[in-house]
Amino acid sequence: MNPSTLIGIIASALLLATVVLFTAQAPSSFFNLPGLAIVLTGTLAASFISYPLREMQRLCRQIAVVFRREPQASELESDLEQLIEMSRHWSRGNIRAIEGALESTTNPFLRTGIQMVIANTREEEIREMLRWRMVRVKAKERTEAQILRTMAVYAPAFGMLGTLVGLINMLEVIQAGDLAVIGPRLAVALMSTFYGILLANLLFKPIAVKLERRTEARLMAMALLLEGIMMVSKRRLPAFIEEALNTYRAEHRDEMRDARRPQPADAAAESA
């Protein structure tokens, strides 16, 4: 499990423990299965009605991936190194070496781009194909995040439905004069709203944000690879490609001057 998710789970557990142990005389009062069942069943039912089954299944797989790991910078570094190495083979005209390197390439986006380059595909067609793949990835993964955001809307709504059900049952009990069961009915009414708000803001929305951030990181990496592939297609020198990619991926850089070179004022001070 990645560290940020683990920290979030621990913080959530501490929050719930604080709420349950220090704000209630009886901790069991915060556990109400009928109220939780109303929220979960209603949210899942509405979500399955709203989206196709294949998208719901894909969402389950993506959630598992998000909880297991995050995209690593080392993976992008490895892809860029493979791209630079293949650009060296391309500049020498060594097609067999490129084909051998493609067999060990685990990134399908990079593999497709280089295969189109060595097939002498036009630059416009390469860019159009790779951009289409980026658009497809963006649309597919944005849909998964949108499902979770929709579930975050449904959960509080079904929490209010549980509240209404509990209040209706409580009014019937009051009318019948049976005051002994007013407490359980009122618990269903209040805890349903509690569960709906909790699931929306502590589960569905955070996972949706994590999926969106993961998509942004993947698209940024694909855009970087796209520029590298296009430079290979234009037969740029490998040294130029390497320097350009290093420039693109730099998080902070002063475009006006290189911080590694001494400034005139510093040089004058040193000479003095």
Automatic annotation (TrEMBL):
Membrane topology term: Multi-pass membrane protein
Chief location: membrane
Pfam families reported for this sequence: MotA_ExbB
Residues covered by region (Disordered): 253-272
Transmembrane segments: 33-53, 152-174, 186-204
Compositional bias ranges of the Basic and acidic residues kind: 253-263
Subcellular location: Cell membrane; Membrane
Keyword annotations: Cell membrane, Membrane, Protein transport, Transmembrane, Transmembrane helix, Transport
Occurrences of domain MotA/TolQ/ExbB proton channel (ranges): 104-222
Protein family per UniProt: Belongs to the exbB/tolQ family.
Full protein name: Chemotaxis protein MotA
Native organism: Salinicola acroporae
